[in-house]
Amino acid sequence: MTPLDLPIAPGRSFASDNAAGAHPTIMQAIVDANEGHALAYGQDQHTKRCETAFSELFGTDVTTRLAFNGTGANIVALANMLGSLQGPHHAIVCTDWAHIAVDETGAPERTLGTKLLEIASPDAKLTPESLQSVTHLQGVQHHVQPGVVSITQATELGTLYTAGEITDLCTAAHEMGMLVHLDGARIANAAAALGGTRETLRAFTVDAGVDVVSFGGTKNGMLGAEAVVFLNNDVAAGSEYTRKQVTQLPSKMRYLAAQFNAALQDDLWIDLARHSNAMATRLHGIVSGIDGIEVGASPQVNSLFPRLAPEMIEPLRDWCFFWDWDPTVHQVRWMTAWDTTENDVEVFAAGVQAFVAANTC
Question: For residue 41, is it within any domain?
């Protein structure tokens, strides 16, 4: 098999759902919101409607602060949570896979002046038992005090917490005097995978005892919008000032709000994530039948982490781009998005088959 025998590369890469464009409905909502003048800094009808929509989504009165990006949303959430605790000596507990620990360039430490207490986890999930590893710090003046637990749903490894697991974790954290933050950059994929309804979302967030959620939109069909949703309104006090202080207050907020209004209407956000997940499952099913690939378990959301022969990674990447995951074991990451088509999946899988054949001839 030679490169001349390869199919034409799919029109979309498998690099990340971050690489996908915005859904047409979202784009139209931005165009519609562009009409006329609107007061700045959230004093507009679009933002007020968005705040109401989030309360309806979670089935309770919540406080919503829109932000520009995921790191910014996490900083707003964590800053206000730490600020609600007594004293600046509190730390954040997370896994060693957490986005705030690995992929935010030290933003929590630098911006918040806090310490991250990273707990090793093979599946990127915390448990009530793993929280016991920080109990020896409590009450000792020489140590930072665990104050916030931050979990990710879906995790950086594409794994999911069940509603029961988050409930148990929140119970344990609260008993230890800690608050719980959920980094939901891909919260839509998690909700779609666990049942695909608003009740599903509520079960692993507000009903489970989560205090604050970073609700992702950018990875799920939006042009660029994130929301910090305070499910515990006691923790929301002062969040309007915190958001401004950490440079996440949008002046023309109507454009962010309009995106969420479109996404939450008729649960488009769930539909987009459900499709993304389904395309990952489809891709896994096809490439699982190809000898020479360790494709791993069926994906829970929209990411696969296969291991490939090292000599085929770069040529395959040049043909259709994707990222490395763990180069030491020749593991890569393939991600699907809201706009991935079945044809994209089939063509990509055909290309993988061609490269495998070329390297086994």
Answer: yes
